Amino acid sequence: MAGGKRRRRHHFSRIHDISSGKDSFRDEHFLIGGPGFSRIVFCNDPECVEAATLGYGGNYVRSTKYTLATFLPKSLFEQFRRVANVYFLICALLSFSPLSPYSAVSTVLPLVVVIGVTMGKEIVEDWRRKRQDIKVNNRQVKVHKGDGVFDYTKWRDLKVGAVIKVEKDEFFPADLILLSSSYDEAICYVETTNLDGETNLKLKQALEATSNLVEDSSFREFKAIIRCEDPNANLYSFVGSLNLGDEHYPLTPQQLLLRDSKLRNTDYIYGVVIFTGHDTKVIQNSTAPPSKRSKIERRTDKIVYLLFAGLVLLSFVGSIFFGIWTSNDIEDGMMTRWYLRPDDTAIYYDPERAGIAAVLHFLTAVMLYSYFIPISLYVSIEIVKVLQSVFINQDQDMYHEETDQPARARTSNLNEELGQVDTILSDKTGTLTCNSMEFIKFSVAGISYGRGVTEVERAMARRKGSPLEEEQGGEAEDLEEKSSIKGYNFRDERVTDGNWVNEPRPDLIQKFLRLLAICHTALPEIDEETGRVSYEAESPDEAAFVIAARELGFEFFERTQTSISLHELDPLTGKNVERSYSLLNVLEFSSSRKRMSVIVTNEEGKLLLLTKGADSVMFERLSRKGSEYVEQTKEHVTKYADAGLRTMVLAYRELAEDEYNEFNKAFTAAKNMVTADRDELVEEAEEKIERDLILLGATAVEDKLQNGVPDCIDKLAQAGIKIWVLTGDKMETAINIGFACSLLRQGMKQIIINSETSEVKAMEKAEDQSAIDAATKASVLHQIAEGKALLDESSETPEALALIIDGKSLAYALDVDAKDKFLDLAIGCASVICCRSSPKQKALVTRLVKVRTGGTTLAIGDGANDVGMLQEADIGIGISGYEGMQAVMSSDIAIAQFRFLERLLLVHGHWCYRRISSMICYFFYKNIAFGFTLFYFEAYASFSGQPAYNDWYLSFYNVIFTSLPVIALGVFDQDVSAKLCLRFPLLYQEGVQNVLFSWERILGWAFNGVVAATCVFFFCVRAMETQAFRKGGEVVGLQVLGATMYTCVVWVVNCQMALSIDYFTYIQHLFIWGGIILWYIFLLAYGAVDPDVSTTAYMVFIEACAPSITFWLVTIFVLVSSLLPYFIYSAFQMRFCPMYHQMIQWIRSDGHSNDPEYCQMVRQRSLKSTTVGFTARLVHSRRFEEKSKPSKQFEERPGSQ
Predict the structure, then answer these.
(1) Could you report the per-residue pLDDT of 881-940, keeping only the tens digit for each?
(2) Catalytic annotation on 570?
(3) Measured between alpha carbons, how far is 1053 from 1059 in angstroms, rounded to an integer?
(4) Share of the chain above pLDDT 90, in %
(5) C-alpha–C-alpha distance, residues 649 and 636, integer Å
């Protein structure tokens, strides 16, 4: 397209209120050249000397955690943030000194393996991010190479000042200034879904001075200088100027095209790069990938600190006793412990220097008791988390067939956090919704048409046991046929196929459908091959309206500067006829007006005002004559809203020519005003004409939720999880989707905090920005205070409140002196919806909730505008949708649909939390049990520093003989099945309340370890200290006692594991019993090695232990006595105070899982008094029914299912 083939001219001046490129300089433009506005861009000459001296960065972007240079120091820092690793490093260094009670290699090797495995895992995870970065940075775009020649260049090689050509449906590779486009008016359509979450297209227009650069060859001699603001994070503002020759032109956001937005409905555009890479606004809105650690991991560190403190205390106490006994070894020249030869010994046991010996013993003891702290804990957790992530990735119930997207755990550090989520902060567009609107119902002349069923209605029907779905089953085939038309899901044989002509009021239906086909700003595109008309609209609901009109016989097919042409179904002849309507004015939609109108003349010369808008502003503008069907229409609108549909009321009236001329004069004058109150004057003129309307009816459009969203939100609400929605959409859109997904419901009081109050609008006329800011902040604080008062009043009633706040108000609510008040109000509300939120505000809200509440936060989104939020939250979930991968690249876990969040949290989250918690508790139990046998033996041996066990017994305890069963526990154990996790959602609260990893539970396991160690040591010593073991009659020595104690420890901790497991697989059996068998095999093999290597283990099993019946009897007796206290406690706890998961286990084990009454009894404890979701809607509706039918108030209890 080197020649830049031009499309036919579209005249938008009548349709859109856009800049013509002749704007005068505003106040902010005089800041250019000052602080914060110093950027200079040499257009079409990025290699010039002046540009090189400015040193602007390249366009390469990365989302990785490490670089080649930072990997080693940063990853080592990550590893040694863990206090246990620091401790083992110190022990490894000291092991090379004579102080060490064991060999250096047996200490260093486990530490190297642990650190190496963990760093290897970090490399693999960061390489995945790197591959995503490579894919993005290697995308290609056409760049001007000189002499009017454009050629493809990789995104990463773009430089500031380069002129590029972006073609239809391509993403912008950097922040650009629009120079020209394929349209004569130099306009282009831009989709910003990845930036602000909005699906409606934005219209941009180049300066008139550059609009003639329409071909590649036009850029041979093009030179210009842009002076503008420095890189910043504000997506919605831009200040700059273009110096072209001797002329200076102001640049505004109207000319700014942002990276990661997409060119739509435009063949191509030319633009100049002004911000690249990390200077672009979308990257400025993101933050560096944080190093996230779970709450359980942080608590594990505290336990390690506690164990280390206990270890130091034991070492200190032992050293004191050692020093005292050593100093007493020689008294009055007599040796009390002569067999130690205190008169001929090293400094470590010298009675003359007992104080120094005690200090040195302290260091030895600190090393010896290192087995209190499990060196393999962290690496075992890493292995378990990776395997848990594999199960998440391979879960078929979280696989989305349509997009071929499975769930992907991009990092495994946060698996257990999935089971502790307290608050979910969700984006709306593309996360809760499918980015599409569907026309589904309408009401005309008091009659409702359309038999479609919404997701909300289906879920409500399932809750109530209604046969709704079965009744609709016969129409499934028709539904599939209709749903193939994007934006249209209307089914009603009374209207389709031209049957509306037989309805009671076909004249009103005709006017209704005609209004849908005319009152809009969409553009038609005709496929030359098929002749099919498609539409590009500024919003998806507007597209749905014109598509519905087309499907029902009123096809909009052409727009010119002054006319709109339709193919209409003539009710008299039954044939399609072409009619043209002269377009006189467009009265645009705004959030304050909540309506739009067009004024046209038909072929008979009649002046018609056609209006559509929100019911809150339309019904009050009806004339008495035009209100014939208002009550029925209101009833239908309420019914549609209850079904989660977005409604719009349609009305019209004929205008007298004098009235129109008077309006047009005032309207045109107001539009041409350049004063601060221009918009207000325009609205006043529009207000005068939009009155005395005649009601036609109402439309119902489904803001299409993703499948299963209402059910998912309902289940998460039953699990006690709070849900906030943070969206860049308008407030009206966000409220509608809140109703659709049951975060809001009819009758729920709404606290709306809006910056557009009358006081603020009055201040805006004065143009004093500081006064406006002060007034806006005061207004926001006042609204927050009023909301808090309403919240305090409602605390005495069961009614729930919803908080809805816009982006400008949110900016003030997040100020230091206001954010605590805002959070207090928000936490007390059942639903929170933040509208018009910028990416940075989303991140700030997430941080506020995370820091101030202390609960685990989960953020979920699909666009680049959600990246900051995902990174700020404890857990970031990216939706791998149809457009863009920015959210996925910055997320911790990626899923294809919001509904998969239910299984991810309630099933995998609960399992991972339980597994990791039980695993860590068990780890500390087995190490305390092992460590205390060392301590007891130390005391038994006068704190001499002599270990009870062989060096390699010590090293292999955590690495081989007890490591695999605990890994199997962390990967495979299930307290309840996935089906029961979903059936009893309150089970999830075990993680939110952290009942399985509370300090009470941790200390209970530690006490269990002390009890086991006490039984092992004292029973072994008392039973064996006088026993003869060898054929020569030698009594038990260190070798036999150590082997026997170690055997008992291995049996006890592995059998304790068997008692703790709820869900046995053959892998658990293999690891538990295999670990015990492996110990005996090792004892045989190691004992057969040369005594210089095996030392105290030489032939100990074959010659001493195995032949003795005492060895086997002691093992059995110690095993039973050590496990008996735990068994008694577990039986008592299960019988008299069972935990919630144990109650569910009863259902499973007693065979009552299919008994509805028995399940209902237990489920009642799982159903919290929720305030959002379908459960809350059902309860609310039943309460209403009880109030209206007092005689039946006890027939059905609220909350029953």
Answers:
(1) 654 566 777 788 989 889 999 999 999 999 999 999 999 999 999 989 998 998 898 888
(2) no
(3) 10
(4) 27
(5) 11
Rounded Cα distance, 169 and 1002, in Å = 56
Mean pLDDT across 338-366: 70
> According to the annotation, is 728 in a ligand binding site?
yes
Record the tokens describing residue 774, joined without a space. Answer: 């002060």
Does 862 count as an annotated binding residue? Answer: yes
CA angle 1040, 1041, 1044 (to 5 degrees): 85
Q: Would you kindly state where each structural domain of the chain is located, as residue ranges?
A: 60-139, 158-285, 292-373, 408-427+717-895, 433-465+484-703, 908-978+991-1150
Question: b/e string for 21-49 if b means 16 or more Cβ within 10 A?
Answer: beeeeeeebeebeeeebebbbbbbbbeee
- Give residue 928's pLDDT: 92
For residue 480, the model assigns a pLDDT of 42
Place of tokens 């489904």: 702
Q: What is the pLDDT of residue 1104?
A: 78
pLDDT exceeds 90 at position 1014: yes
- Classified as helix, coil or strand, 833 is strand
The topology (CATH level 3) of 433-465+484-703 is Calcium-transporting ATPase, cytoplasmic domain N (3.40.1110)
Chain length of the chain? 1201
Most confident of 313-317, 977-981, 1116-1120: 1116-1120
Q: What is the CATH number of domain 408-427+717-895?
A: 3.40.50.1000
Between strands 893-895 and 875-879, the pairing is: parallel
> From the candidates 279, 427, 541, 703, which is the catalytic residue?
427
User: According to DSSP H, which parts of 277-433 are helical?
Assistant: 281-284, 295-327, 354-368, 377-393
What pLDDT was estimated at residue 6? 42
Can you list the pairs that 137-141 forms with residues at least 24 positions away whose Cβ atoms lie under 8 Å?
Answer: 137/59, 137/60, 137/61, 139/171, 139/173, 141/165, 141/166, 141/170, 141/173
Residue 849: partners with Cβ closer than 8 Å, 6 or more residues away = 423, 425, 724, 823, 855, 857
Q: Which two tokens stand for residue 626?
A: 């035009």
Instruction: Judge whether 542 is annotated as a binding position.
Output: yes
Q: Which residues contact 729 (CB under 8 A, 6 or more apart)?
A: 197, 198, 428, 429, 737, 835, 836
Q: Which amino acid is at 698?
A: A
Question: What pairing do the DSSP bridges indicate for beta strands 187-191 and 421-426?
Answer: unpaired
Burial class (CB in 10 A: 0-12, 13-18, 19+), 194: buried
Q: Tell me the two tokens of residue 11.
A: 């005249």
Buried b / exposed e over 741-761, threshold 16 CB at 10 Å, is: bbbbbeebeebbbbbebeebb
Token representation of residue 738:
């809140």
CB 918 within 8 A of CB 996: yes
Side-chain half-sphere exposure of 477, counting CA atoms within 13 A: 1
Q: Which residues pair with 40 in a beta bridge?
A: 227
- Global pTM reads 0.72
Q: What is the pLDDT of residues 639-671, one digit of tens each?
A: 887 777 888 999 999 999 999 999 999 988 887
pLDDT per residue as tens digits for the range 271-326:
999 999 889 988 887 655 566 788 888 888 888 888 888 888 988 888 888 787 77
Please give the Cα distance from 888 to 876 (Å, whole number).
Answer: 9
Q: E strands of 182-289, at which residues?
A: 187-191, 201-205, 224-228, 240-244, 247-251, 256-257, 262-264, 268-275
- pLDDT tier for residue 457 given thresholds of 50, 70 and 90: confident
The answer to whether the annotation marks 71 as part of a ligand binding site is no
Q: 3.40.50.2300, 2.70.150.10, 3.30.70.560, 3.30.450.20: which CATH number matches 158-285?
A: 2.70.150.10
| Token couple for 614 | 């929100």
C-alpha 732/C-alpha 737 separation (Å) is 9
**H or E element, residue 140:** strand 140-146
The response to whether 280 counts as a known ligand-binding position is: no
Written as six digits, the tokens of 671 are: 């539009």
Judge contact between 1013 and 1122, C-beta under 8 A: no
